[in-house]
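User: what does the whole thing look like in 3D?
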Amino acid sequence: MAATPEITNPDTGQSDQPSLGEIGLSSFVPYLLNRIASSWNMEIQDTLRKQNLNTVRMRALAVLTVKNGLSIKELIHLTVIEQSTLSRALDALEKLEMIERIASKDDRRVRTIYITDKGRDAFSNVWPDMFFEYNDMFAGIDDTERARLVQTLHKILNNLGVKDPGS
Amino acid sequence: MAATPEITNPDTGQSDQPSLGEIGLSSFVPYLLNRIASSWNMEIQDTLRKQNLNTVRMRALAVLTVKNGLSIKELIHLTVIEQSTLSRALDALEKLEMIERIASKDDRRVRTIYITDKGRDAFSNVWPDMFFEYNDMFAGIDDTERARLVQTLHKILNNLGVKDPGS
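Assistant: Here's the predicted 3D structure for the full assembly of 334 residues, as structure tokens:
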């Protein structure tokens, strides 16, 4: 990240940088990604609310259904949610008995986060609608195109310094 | 959106639906998109803060730099930000004199939102860092792959019922 904003291009030192209008909103990938993520999050909002969940809580649970027993640091990394926001969500999930945080025997300050059966049930209840929306997103997009998209998204995540959750 | 969550697949009525674990976090596109969007938003947060902006305010300004003079409804559509969240952001931007809302002569309740010179300046100050991050995202991704990505993202937006901002 460049320290201070400047009109010159940080790469070339030249002021040959196109404006957002020149690139065009409909070609500017961060804009498209934000719109898709927002739109996806809105689509599943009602479903989440019925289970006392919101997007942040659901994302934490989703990761824990796949990889249970994580430190807060690992969970921040896997969800890319800010620490303060994630901590609030975890407090709420603990009250709802959907997760539990168990202190390490060696160091009581270190706690590992586990999803409970109640948490798994809540996620199981939202998953069918999420999966339905997911299939909807890919109408008319074949397996090759989907695989290509996933590949490019991984390259972008890698460029942004976010490690593959599978690695 | 299916009305109530159920374990059967809403498309086929069968319970042959894979779990998130079976699909794998690293292949589940909504997860990848949320991570990229979050990570992008975090990367530019410091830059935005220096201009009294946050992600929502910046997204509203960004759209207005390209298409000035919008109704709240149009701005909601183009940013895919919830009405209450967007309204709060617009109140803040108005206080900062970065936008103005001008009432219609015919109907005082209808107001059109315009970016001001101050708003354009603020966006110009964050744009170099945003553009730098944007280029960074695409390191090692050539023009063909980028164009293919944009094309697939447009299909997804279309499937989600979000119209192309260029159309």
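In plain terms: Chain B has a mean pLDDT of 87. DSSP finds eight helices and two strands in chain B.
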